[in-house]
Fold this protein.
Amino acid sequence: MPIQTTMAPYGIMPVSTADTKPIWDGAKEGKLVVLKCSDCGFLNWPPQPWCGGCKNPDFNKEWVAVSGRGTIYCWYICHDTSITGYEEKVPYAVLLVELEEQKGLLVMSNLLNFEYGTLGEGIENGAAVEVVFDKASDDIFVPQFQLRR
Amino acid sequence: MPMSWAPGKRPVFVGAGSTMVRRYMPRSHSANAKDAATAAIADAGLKIEDIDGIFIWADPNWGPSAVGDPKVWLDVAHVMQVMPWKNIKFWLQPEAVAAGSCSGIQSAALALGAGACNYALVIRTGHHPAGVRYRQISSNRAAGNAAFTQPYGHGVGGSGQAVSYQAYLSKYGAKRESMWGYVGTAHDNAQLNPNAVWKGREITQDDYLNARLIAYPMNIFDNDMPCDGVHAVVMTTEDRAKNTPHPGGYMSGMAAINWELRSTGAAETLENLEDMGKRMADNMYASSGFSAKDVDVKHVYDGFSPMVWMWLEAFGFAPKGEAHRWAQPETIGLKGTDPLNMSGGNLGNGRVHGFTHVLECAQQMMGTAGPRQLEKVTVGTVETGPFGNGSCFLVTKE
Ligand SMILES: [Zn+2]
């Protein structure tokens, strides 16, 4: 399999909304920004109208940059072509990365800059990864992960 | 405390009916619904005017569009129009996708037990319109939560399950080759089910292991196939059931998924899913007073094959982390020690959203399962819905 250095062009482009703008603004500056509850300290990803830690719908919100380091929690290899704009990209890995700041804080990603097999050969759960920002447009940089060396 | 019912008011299955399940059928699903309902009512020895309650888990559960289109999905309003009902006095239509097919049965049981109606029809359609690719994702922008999943090319059929499946394989040292134990059993059982979509179309272990990959480690045979077909059952109360030909399966307990345990993440961890599933199973057992060792008629949802292993463990049928070894034909086959999903399930009978398990449980408990009939039938369970979703019930033969 050729190494994927980018997933661009993105067949499905993330849209920055009022609820998520700090994330996309951060990504443009090379920071992985998550929504922290300043009441209980829980990190929420993606942002929700309530805090996943204390379940408070009126929680005090704080946008914070995290390290961008984590480990591969699990993965699959997409071979199916039912998503418009991704037909030419298959097979590609879809990961869930567990960020080091909080157990169970899973962020989805592809796996850039690493040669793996069509059945995921070479990808190991627990492997150390770090965020990179993949340019999707002038304004949108998609958080993606690569192996840490 | 177990659930309780007034004397003579335990809800029980008295009839079952079904159309064939086929990839595409050259008739409307309204016509299918009428046939299945008519067969179920006749099987119960009743007439259409006896039916006074209708219950449908009506989530369209089909794909991205046409949700409100009666050509695609079947709701109570639609069923009311396609048969000459005379005496309907109550109906309920749970719709949350999380609730699953069992929620139609749960609604009927609660209404019967409380006296809101006396003879309930519970029905579910599967329908797959020709010319439309199932689960095609065609939008080119994603907002909200989808902005953090879809741009990664996530969302093909079964992809939500593939992540927890890979986590399971890794955590417990399981191999995807072992899944043939269940998939092969489901296809074997389908050969004894005259309505099954896979009847007469046998697949081999090689076919399975070399099948088209969808979201590896899952392939096409790990995902149920969108189909046309309708299943229906009739339920009444114990006192009225005495006058019907073959009552069986008295409602003893029920539960629904513990969504308060859900995380806000892009996906649930395997550990969280295991916890949610076990809590639901424990609640069902507590509500009935029975435990896993009492259950001899076992049904767990298999719309995606990995769910089978996880539900077998959640319900305590297989030891935790061991279902991949346990779920092999000598154990779960029709002649095994712990038969499972005797109709062939979603993967063998076809995709009617878990109602195949409801239908088969009713028939097993009523003694009308024909060539698939088990000898020992005392306690039956059904779970419908994929991991992280679901509802379930427990019934007794007597
Ligand atoms: Zn909080």
